Structures are given as C-alpha cells and as structure tokens.
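Q: What structure does this chain adopt?
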Amino acid sequence: MARIKIELPAAFPFSIQIPVRIQDVNYGGHVGNDAILSIMHESRLQYLQSIGYKELDLVTNTGLIMADVAIAYKGEAFHGDVLMVEVAAGEFSTFGFELFYRITTNRADKSHTIAEGKTGMVCFDYNTRKVARLSPEMKASLEK
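A:
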C-alpha cells in the first residue's frame, strides 16, 4: 500500500506549543486524526498572525482557503503532552502556497515525532467568489 510522503523544508521559521486537551483524545486513548488537523489549523492561524496576516481580512473580504491537506502520522500523542508545532511556507504559485507542519512532543527528555503535514492554501476573493493572486507583500512575508 502506498504511503503519503511529505518532504519537509530544512528550516521552520515559526513554532508554537499546544497542550493536548482531553477532547483531543479518542477512544483509542491517543490524539485523534481530527484533532491533529485542528491543531494544524490553530498553528496556521498563529503563524499567519505572527507575520501580520489573517485567514480572512474583513476589510477587503479576501482570505485563504485550504484546498488540500496531507498528514503522515508518525507516533501517538496523549493527554498531558505538550505538542511543538513548527510551520514553514513554500511551493509558491500565482494563487497560493503550501504550509508545512512538523508536530513533535518531548517525553522523558526524548523527542517524539507525532505527525508531519502540509496544507495547500489558495487566496480567495469572497466578493467575486473567485481565486485571487498571492500578493507580492504576503509572499515576501511568508518567505522570511
């Protein structure tokens, strides 16, 4: 069976710590796949905010839409873990870019990789309901 392989960038300019909440844990006793996606979403919002952007600009009514997502699960996370989520942008196009995520946790002074992921982000104009061009300013901020 073919597995998803995500080639992560060499460096991640942003990281955030997110504690695992009890509602993130599924019946298997570990963090569920839906929670990992939600954690990636929170990390994306925090990353964009750190470079001066939001997913939706209410003034211009433009924003970002997640066009696709890929997640490769590498290990288990549990309630009480604090996840380190690193985020980097890359693979720019006229209308968007990809965000890459590396999620790890430390237990007993050892780092454990929990998941690797990427999301394809598309710029979108909510006034015209059409894709929009990635602005040179935003691209420059994402490339730092």
